[in-house]
C-alpha cells in the first residue's frame, strides 16, 4: 500500500479490519506511516523522536497473531504517537525541554503500556511546549509546530504535536496531556477531536509532572468513536497512581449509540461574553441548535465565577509546577552545567541553562505565590476560588447532563503573534482551565470553519466520571456534520 | 508595582535560578503584569469558603478509611501485595550526568 492520500483515511476500525483480513500487515502499515512522516513532518514539526525499533517489534507481534488467525486486540496495528511528556522505556523522552535532551527513561507510562497491550504501534514521541507550559507549542526547546491546516499558524498547545500529527494523517490516534486546556485547545485549532477525561479516570503514572492536581492524559483522534476507543483502553484504576479512581470503565463505544433525545444541554452565558470571536460564536451557537434538533433540551445555566478561573489557575498551576520542577537539579538525570565549583552553583547554573524562559517565569510566579508572607494572599486564595468554580459546575450539573461552550475564543493565531505577551497567551485558555480546576471531563470536536477555512471547536463538559454521556452527545452531533 | 528587583532576586534564589540581567528585567515586568491580573481574585469574598487542594478531595474518602469507593489513598496495592521490584543500580545511574558506578557524583557540598 503506497503512502498516499488513502493513508490519511485510516481509522482504528479500518486498520484492524485490514490486518485481520490480511489486506495489509501491521509492519507494512508502520512503514507507510514512517514514509508519510518523512514526507510531511519537515514542514510541520510534530515529531521529536521516532521509535522505529519499538514500533516494528510490536508490529511483528501483531502480524504473528494475524498470521496465526488469533483474535486481534482492539487497537491491533493502529499507528499511534505519544506526547513527549509521557515516559517510554528505552525511548528518549524530553518533555520539550533541553534539560531532558538525553533522558532515556527506565520505565513506561501506564497509558502507553495499556495502548501497546491493546495492540497499538507507537511510532514516536510528539513535540510540545516545554514541560507542557504554553498554548502554542512555540515554547518547545526544539522547534515550533506548524498547524497542518495553515502552516503560518500555531497548532495550539501544549499538545500541539499530538493534534498536528492526527490532523496531518501521521498517526491514527495520539495521546496528549491537558493541564489547562492542552488537549482541547490544540484539537480545536487543528480540527480534530481531543478529550480530557475526568481527573482520576486515567492513570498519571509516567506522566512528567507539571501541576499534579490539574494534569490529565487523554486521546486525540479524527472521530469521537476513536477517542472513545482509546479512552476505554487507557482508563481505569492503576495501583501506581494513588489518585487514579477505582470507578468501573464503561464500554464507551457501545454507549455511543444510545439516543440523546431528552438529554439536557446547558449553555452558560459566561462562555459567550466579550472577546469571543463572532465567527466562533456563530459556529458554536449553530452547533447547539443542531443538538436541539437532535432532541436535546437546551437549558440556560450559570457558571458565575468563570472570569476568575484564569487568575486562580495561574496561581495553582505555577505553585505546583515550582515544586514539581525542583527535581531538575542536574544530579540524577538530565542536563548538568559543567565546571561548577559547588553544589548550589551547579543547581543554579544547570536550571538556568536547562530551562526556557516560560518555564522560568512559571517557576518564579509559583515560588513567589508560595513564599512566606504571600501564601495566604495568593495560593490559599486561589484554592478557595477553585472551590467556588467547582461548586458552579456542581450546581449546573443538577440541572443539565452536559454543558456546551466554545473551546477557544478564536481560531488558531499566527506563529509569533503572542510569544512576547505571556498574559495574552494565558488568555487563550480562558474557556478550558475551569474543567481542570474542577476535574470535570471536557471534549473538543470540530464544528465548522471561519472565512479563512480555520477550524472552530465545540467544547462539551460532563459530570465527573460521565464521559459516556459526553461522548454520546459529541458523537450524535458529529454525525450531523 | 507589587514586585521589585529585590523580590525578583530573592525569589530566584529560593527557586535555585540564577537569571541573567535581561531575564531579571523581563521577570520584573511579567510578574507585575500577571500579578496585577491575579488581583481580580480579591473581588471575591472567600472568608467562609474552604480551600480545595485537589479534585479527589471531593470524590475521595477519608484517608483513614481503606478501600473507599473512588480514591483509595491509603491502599497502596504495590505495598500491600509485597514490595514491587525497584530499578537495578545500573539502570538508576544510567541517566546520571556523573556517577562512579556506585554513587551519583556532585560538586563539593560544603562551601568555604
Can I get a quick summary?
The complex is a heterodimer of chains A (about 475) and B (about 110). Chain A is built from 16 helices and eleven strands.
Distinctive features:
heterodimer, A: 481 residues, alpha/beta, Amidase signature (AS) enzymes, 16 helices, 11 strands, 40% helix, B: 112 residues, mainly alpha, Histone, subunit A, 2 domains, 5 helices, 0% strand
Explain what this protein looks like in three dimensions.
The complex is a heterodimer of chains A (481) and B (112). Chain A has 16 helices and 11 strands. Chain A has 481 residues and is of the alpha/beta class. Chain A has a domain at 5-255: Amidase signature (AS) enzymes, CATH 3.90.1300.10. An 11-stranded mixed beta sheet of chain A has the order 1-3-2-4-6-5-10-11-9-7-8, sandwiched between helices. In chain A, helix 2 (26-44) packs antiparallel against helix 3 (52-67) and helix 10 packs across helix 12 (357-370). The longest helix of chain A has 25 residues, at 375-399. Chain A is globular. By secondary structure, chain B is mainly alpha-helical. Chain B folds into 2 domains: 5-43, Histone, subunit A (Orthogonal Bundle), CATH 1.10.20; 56-112, no CATH class. Chain B contains 5 helices and no strands. Chain B has helices at residues 5-14, 21-38, 56-59, 77-80, 89-93. Chain B is flat. Chain B starts with a helix and ends in a 19-residue tail after the last helix. Mean pLDDT of chain B is 82; it is low at 60-74. At the A-B interface, helix 10, helix 11, helix 12, helix 13 and helix 14 of A face helix 1, helix 2 and helix 3 of B.
